[in-house]
Amino acid sequence: MSNVRALAAQTLFQVVDKGASLSAQLPLATSQLDGKDKALLQQICYGVLRYLPSLEHYCQQLLEQPLKGKRRVFQFLLYVGIYQLQHMRVPAHAAVAETVNALTPLRAPGMKGLVNAILRSFQRHQVELETSAAEIPACLYNHPGWFINQLKAAYPTQWQAILEANQQQAPMWLRVNQSQFSTADYAALLDQEGVAYQLHSEYPDGILLDSPIDVYALPQFAAGACSVQDAAAQKAARLLAPQAGENILDACAAPGGKTCHILELADAKVTAIDADGDRLQRVEQNLERIRLSAKCLEGDASDPETWWDGEQYDRILLDVPCSATGVIRRHPDIKWLRRASDIDNLVTLQAQIIDKIWPLLKPGGTLVYATCSVLPQENQQQIARFLSVTPDATLVPLHDADTQTQPGLQLLPGLSDGFYYAKLTKQ
Ligand SMILES: C[S@@+](CC[C@H](N)C(=O)[O-])C[C@H]1O[C@@H](n2cnc3c(N)ncnc32)[C@H](O)[C@@H]1O
Description:
This protein is α/β, with parallel strands linked by helices. The protein folds into three domains: about 5-140, N-utilizing Substance Protein B Homolog, Chain A; about 175-230, Sun protein, domain 3 (Alpha-Beta Plaits, 2-Layer Sandwich); about 230-425, Rossmann fold, CATH 3.40.50.150. It has helices at about 5-15, 20-30, 35-50, 50-60, 70-85, 90-100, 110-135, 135-140, 145-155, 160-165, 185-195, 230-240, 255-265, 275-290, 335, 340-355, 380-390, and strands at about 175, 195-200, 205-210, 225-230, 245-250, 270-275, 295-300, 315-320, 360-370, 395, 410, 420-425. GO terms for molecular function: RNA binding; rRNA (cytosine-C5-)-methyltransferase activity.
């Protein structure tokens, strides 16, 4: 099938109703399309996931009964149509006609009348519908209620700005491979190619592109000169500060962005562990492209007895599994796939991992704990608990207010993604 709107409706059905991840589903759909349509499909899927509660509310008001069972995919087609009418610069008549036409490849020509009527009704009642949606917090902010409540409690003055930032398209950051080029030298190559960018002194390896670009249009990308990595994620290796010849563990490594960065900064002996063997293959592919190497092992970081060779590490990076609530703007499906009840399980797993990995660090060694979460339970509270039960751990302050009870550095989505870091040394 090569109809963008029909593929978007099917993709969204798989993500929202069946719990599949957008990053797994999108490639299946885009592989059926050519260049311009791939971008349109992606734009529609991201957009619908960003505004899902509002779209659900409009359809609830416009449909006599929600579409159920096998007809659920048509409910998502309605979201696709309304999203175009509300947020895209497609002429309204074309948005309606193209959405209705998608029913032919979806083999439901009998639904054309209903879909046409609902989209036209949305156009007529748009103002009242938007006013009524604005009275419901989940629709006003387009985030799940549990998450809005947790953010309000954790960030009494910043929660709205965080929700707003999550609704924006994420910028494209490059990380220059310092084993091949200095950032200034690579920026000069971008100048020659006419690629516009900005440099930010707090991210010495980073280049922020003015607009996204196909990676293979970047100078020497295939030879490993640069990688795509958000600025916040680029802090991990810099905080770890790897040195040549050191024995380093990256304990939750896949797909390997930070493993690669560590090796780009220092000729160290790196072991990359991940519990997911398929994702670990991506670490190997990324290392191959940047032309550096690490020992890659499938293993459970909360059970080192099963893979550890007994030699303690000089430095350890723990980029633990987390709620990913700091990267919602890159993965809007997180808002609908993640449940409030997941957080406690993640906090328990993170605690098991840091408690079990700590003995693998040499005295005098450094451990950096990282998450792409904005929730204090996974971040400051996790590290405060760890410090309270680990007498040989010392917090290295990352800013003036970094204390035993409020440890670490919390970055919020904006210039970079939302990320958390804590740096610890062992006595
Ligand atoms: C935040 S991602 C890591 C991203 C990676 N550091 C990078 O920069 O590309 C977390 C990773 O932890 C892995 N993971 C989850 N549970 C694990 C466990 N018990 N032991 C080791 N890895 C685990 C996941 O498969 C996932 O790849």
